[in-house]
Structure formats: structure tokens, C-alpha cells
Amino acid sequence: MSEKQTFSGNRGLQLEEPLIFEIGSYQNCGVDLDDVPDVASCLGDCAAPGNADLPGLSEPEAMRHFVRLSQKNHAIDAGLYPLGSCTMKHNPRLNEKMARLPGFSDIHPLQPQATVQGALELMDDLAHWLKTLTGLPAVALSPKAGAHGELCGMMAIRAAIEAKGELATRNRVLVPESAHGTNPATAALLGFKVDGIPANAEGRVDLAAFKEKLGDDVAAIMLTNPNTCGLFERDIIEIADALHAVGGYFYCDGANFNAIVGRVRPGDLGVDAMHINLHKTFSTPHGGGGPGSGPTVLSDRLAPFAPLPFVVSGEDGFSLVETMGDARLGADENPFGRMVAFHGQMGMYVRALSYMMSHGADGLRQVAEDAVLNANYILASLRDVMTAPFDNGPKAPCMHEALFDDSFLKDTGLDTLDFAKAMIDEGYHPMTMYFPLVVHGAMLIEPTETESKASLDLFIATMRDLVKGAKEGDMARFKNAPELAPRRRLDETQAARNPILRWHEPTAKAQAAE
Ligand SMILES: *Cc1c(COP(=O)(O)O)cnc(C)c1O
After folding, report:
1. Which of 229, 233, 253 to mutate to test the pocket of ligand 1 (most atoms within 8 A of CB)?
2. DSSP letter at 91?
3. pTM reported for the whole predicted model
4. CA of 417 to the centre of ligand 1 (A)
5. What is the pLDDT of residue 508?
């Protein structure tokens, strides 16, 4: 691999791209505008001095800028994206065609509802299928991400507890150690005490430890199923029953619904609230490619607290119940408020419904089956060279993702990060790293159902070659990686903790120091 520096900073056809402020100039413009006539300003001393310093680019410059940036963003449309828990699956083009229909894409949330009947009907249809697939009676469509859906479900739980007058005493939320960070964060944000439940040697919730934690002060458990170790929580019904017996609510993190959609209805397992990441299970681009959407399904016990707005249908067609004073709210309905200004992510509703309708019930079931099959193919093909902490052999398959730890790298002087960076040079986005926390140096690989066998075989062969390189002591291949990416190892912690969100023209001094 070459360290070759080029004069332009470009590497082959991989082009450097400065910030738009660095290439644009105020004088340039992509369109021909008439000269502004002299007008008397009415702004007095409120007028801004000078110009607004907006970057100006010609049309081809603007086009190149954004196309080059888009090429730096790895996408599922470019290659395998095995990010565990995130379900980066192919987004069928049919979804895009439907989402771009002007009747969906050119409407405005403040339009009279009589003029957007089709869009409201689509929301009602989507709600119907989400309820049918989960076996739960109500759904709040509006949350705008998985984490936002968690907040919605936990706010419904808090409202139910408050309605019973138990808010002061029922304040503990049980969260397994393998949980996604958003689970404890959501509980803490709402003022609950977070109490961790250990995992057993199999990577599942330790049932005895869970039962010991039960008491009258337990508000809820937040459990992911299949869990973040890629395993189905076998004791889930026993967990739900024991929790309900002490008056607690069962929040299920539904981000991994892709593994069981069409096969299992969470409502049958005793779940009270669950968010569904439309952008994971029902395709629709995410990860830099688009917004999220996290509708939250609710059980009978929580349905009366579902947030505003929601779609209802009557003789006059479809409409949204928007306010607490709406006469259509039943006597027992007591929405806890609202999650968003309008109604949620219309474009994602269209994509998700398009995905559901084009697959049908049998197709959705096959999605889950193929997702699980592909993950097991990877586990079975790598288990002899990588180490899988909860692997109990071919008779105990994983669900939709294969979890490895870093013990196969022991004595190589390399760690999970080195391994992941070397994958980038091979043209693969790394798997999810160092998550779940219950596994040392975790590597969580989720291929999804949309990869072909040929694509999986090449990935597996590449991983095996990397393991061979690691064991043979080819340190340069790992420690210098990524060598073929536009940037090497960035300080991700610094970037997350101290993001620079504003561009300032570099001063002469800073330039001299560079
Ligand atoms: C993705 C994910 C979430 C959060 O979803 P966002 O849409 O990213 O907010 C929560 N839990 C699990 C297990 C996830 O994989």
C-alpha cells in the first residue's frame, strides 16, 4: 500500500473536497438574476453591515461539491454495511418512487385536512399494519427515531403510573447490561432510577437476578428482543408475567424487530410498549442517508395515554385529533401530550407501507428468516478463526446478527479497532464495535437479508484473510490502517466532545502554524 502524496491532495479519482465556505465566494452565483434596483431601505440602523458572507458557487461547482461529499459517505447502495443492531438493508427503489409521488411529497402539514385525505389514509393503513404485525392495539406514529420512540413509550408508562397515583413510589427501571445506551438514557431523562440486570453466561437476562430485583417500586423493564447479543430472550414470557405481577410495565426495544417480523407478535409475549425503527425493519435509508422514524405500539393498558396527534376516520373521511379538547377523545383517553410539532415523517411512512405491501405477509416472514439465515452463515463460517462468546454450536443458532469478541486477537498486539480499520482498506464498513458492553472488544456483524451468498462469501473470505494476517503478525496492515481512505484515524472522542460547528476564516497566524 502506498503512502504516495499527490500534488493536488486527490488520490486517484478520490477527490479532496474543502468546505463550501472555502471554495465559494460571495460574487459567484448559480443563476442569472436581474440587477437589484436602488430602493430606499426601510431598515434604518437594523440593516446588517456588509454582506451575509454566504458562499456562492456556480451550478457545476455546487453539483461537484455535493456529489463528492456524497461519495465520501459509505452507503448500503455502495457496498455491504454490516453494522450490527442498525440493520443497514437495501432500500427498494419502489419505495423511493412512491415517496416522490407529488401527492405525498409536495403537501404541507398546515394544509386543510380535506385536501390531504390520501396521506391521512396512508398513515391510517400504516398504523393498521404496525398494530397487526405486533399484535398490539394502539400506535403513536409521530416519534422521529428509535430513541424518540423509547421516550414516547416511557412517557406513556409514566403517565399510566401517574394516573394510578404511584409516581412518587414506582420509580425504578430495570435495564439489562447488554442494552443499547438509549434505554438507560431514556429512563434517566424521565427521572427514573436505572437498575442494571446482569447477563448470564449464555448472553441472556439472568432470570434469577431479575426476579430478585422485582418489587412494588419497579416501574418498568426495558428489554431488547432479540437482544443485542443477537439472541432471543427465551424467558421473555416468564419475565413479562413476573413483572406484571408486581405492577410494572414491559418496554421492549424493538430495534431488532427485523429478526422476528412476521414470525412473532410482541403483543403475545406480554409487551406493553415497543418502538419500531421504520428505518431498520421496513427499509428506508438511514445512517447519513435520511431521517429516522420510530412509531411506538402500545398495549391496552397504555393506549389511553398515546400522544397527540392521531388519525381517526369518520363519515367526513380522515382527520387528525390534534388537541386535548377534541370532542372525539373518549372519556378514558388522556394523551400525555405530543412528541413533535406536526405528525411525523411522512416520507418514511410512505416507504414503510410500500415495503410492507410489496412484500406481503409471506414476504415479511421471509425477511426475518433470511436475515437469521445470513447471520448464521457468517457465524458458522467464521467460528473456527474468530471467537464467539455465546456460541453454543450449530444446534444453538444466533438470530439476525453474529457476535464475536476479541479473544482471537490475544497475543497479536492488535485490538478490535485495528481490525475494524483494516476492514476499511478492504472496502468494508466496519461492524459495530465495542457494543454490547458485556463482551470484551465486541464485534457485532449484521449482514441483513438483502446480501447475496456471493457477497457474504467474499466478506467471509476477506475476514478470514484478515484474521490470518493478524495471526501471522502483519502489523503494518492493521496499525497503519486505513491507508486507502481519505483520512486515517481521526480523534473520534474529540470530535464528539468538542464538535466545531462554525467555520471561521483561518487567520494568517493559524495558516502559518499548519
Ligand atoms: C438503533 C437502535 C436504537 C435507537 O434507534 P435510533 O433510531 O438510532 O434512535 C435503540 N436500540 C437499539 C437496540 C438499536 O439498535
Report:
1. 253
2. -
3. 0.92
4. 22
5. 61
